[in-house]
Amino acid sequence: MLVNFTFKNFRSFRDEMTLSMEAASIQELAGSVVPAADENLLPVAVMYGANSSGKSNVLKALRAMRDVLLNSVKLNPKDKLDAEPFCLNMTSGDEPTSFEIQFTIGESKYRYGFDYNAEAILNEWLYEKRKGEREFELFLRSGDEFKISKTRFSEGIGKQDSTPANRLFVSLVAQLNGKVSQAILDWFTNMDYMSGMDGKEYVGKTLKMLMYNQEGGDEVMRLFEQTNLGFHGIEVNAKLDDKFSLDSKTIHNIFNEDGTVVEQRSFPTDKMESEGTKKLIEIAGPIFDAILNGKVLIVDELDAKLHPFLTRKIIGLFMDKEINKKSAQLIFATHDTNLLNLQYLRRDQIWFTEKDKTDSSELYSLVEFRDDAGNKVRNDRNIEKDYINGRYGAIPFMN
Q1: Residue 12, CB half-sphere, CA atoms under 13 Å: how many?
Q2: Neighbouring C-beta atoms of residue 327, cutoff 10 Å
Q3: Which residue of 1, 195, 319, 366 could cross-link 32, Cys pair, CB 3.0 to 4.6 Å?
């Protein structure tokens, strides 16, 4: 599970910020907290903010760290790295971007990070903390200098000289069958990013689940039934591929003049169904793939085209331990203020982004927010009303 993610000098974020999935010592929805490797972790985090405030960039930072790591293996020694530093001052564009992430695998907690620019990996580090032990350094890289633990990371010994300047050491050791480093890459592979604005590229996963009766297919249909979308089944064409467009048919009841169901007919989904229904069909597969496989699912604009009740339903899937048995996590951005209710989310699950006077984004959570008098947000506040009234910032200001 993701414990926390720290990043610096990425897109609209100049200064170091941390998104934490660690549960605070608060009482609301305590049953949703997940124990993992000496940590109490949260299954959901949501971000609010004005347009262009930076909330999407928090999610893109997570994706960027994943992509740099997973794509590192494909680079030739002279290839450029994909770097996007903050560019709205005179110095940050020439400074490195920094990513650090803490996550759990079994009973161990790992802390992995790197500093880089378009030309090279400048620093890289990996630490492990096993349950009941202190944190141990597995390796530390500074430029072309390496310090590698012979006992905890022997798989890396002797491989540092084979690491190009633009290649992450973890990815190289994993390619050479390093057990720990491969587990690190596998964890990042289990992080999925999805845009809520256009889900057509994800619908193939949903329809494959249904057509081939894959794991998750029953759960997908149960979600459709529970949300009363108006259809009673889906017909899927025989040929599917990863670039599959929404080419399916939904089955609807046909009624006589007395309102009695006399037959069922199928209609093209694209023509018959609303945009919201089509979106739920598109994203249902990735949602249950994440839940059934314990993934971290990152969604930008989750609420786009969806009724607030449907968004709330999706959050509830991740918050319910009886459904989310493998401790999947959902991290998303939204403008849906209906979710700002402590019946659905805890104060430590609600995050805000806002730009300062230099157009640099800031990230902060509701649980750490203090008013002008230094007071915390109480759990009896009307969070939605306070947010709309500007109490917590992170809202647009109109001239």
Answers
A1: 21
A2: 18
A3: 319
Q: DSSP secondary-structure letter at 191?
A: E
CB-CB contact of 137 with 150 (8 Å)? no
Per-residue pLDDT of 106-117, as tens digits, reads 999 999 999 999
In contact, 97 and 77? CB cutoff 8 Å:
no
- Check residue 340 and give its pLDDT: 97
Q: Which long-range contacts (CB under 8 A, 24 or more apart) does 304-311 make?
A: 304/196, 304/197, 304/279, 305/196, 305/275, 305/276, 305/278, 305/279, 306/276, 306/279, 306/280, 307/276, 308/336, 308/338, 308/339, 309/227, 310/227, 310/276, 310/280, 311/336, 311/338, 311/339
Q: Output the pTM of the full model.
A: 0.95
Residue 330 has pLDDT above 90, yes or no: yes
What confidence tens digit (pLDDT) does each residue in 389-399 have? 999 999 887 66
Give the residue range(s) of CATH 3.40.50 domains in the chain: 2-190+294-388
Question: Quick one: angle between helices 179-189 and 55-71, nearest 10?
Answer: 140
User: What topology does CATH give the domain 2-190+294-388?
Assistant: Rossmann fold (3.40.50)
The Cα 105–Cα 318 span in angstroms is 19
How many angstroms separate the CA atoms of 222 and 82, rounded? 41
Q: Which helix (H) or strand (E) segment is 83 a member of?
A: none
- 333: Cβ–Cβ under 8 A, 6 or more apart, which residues? 46, 47, 48, 49, 55, 56, 58, 59, 299, 300, 301, 302
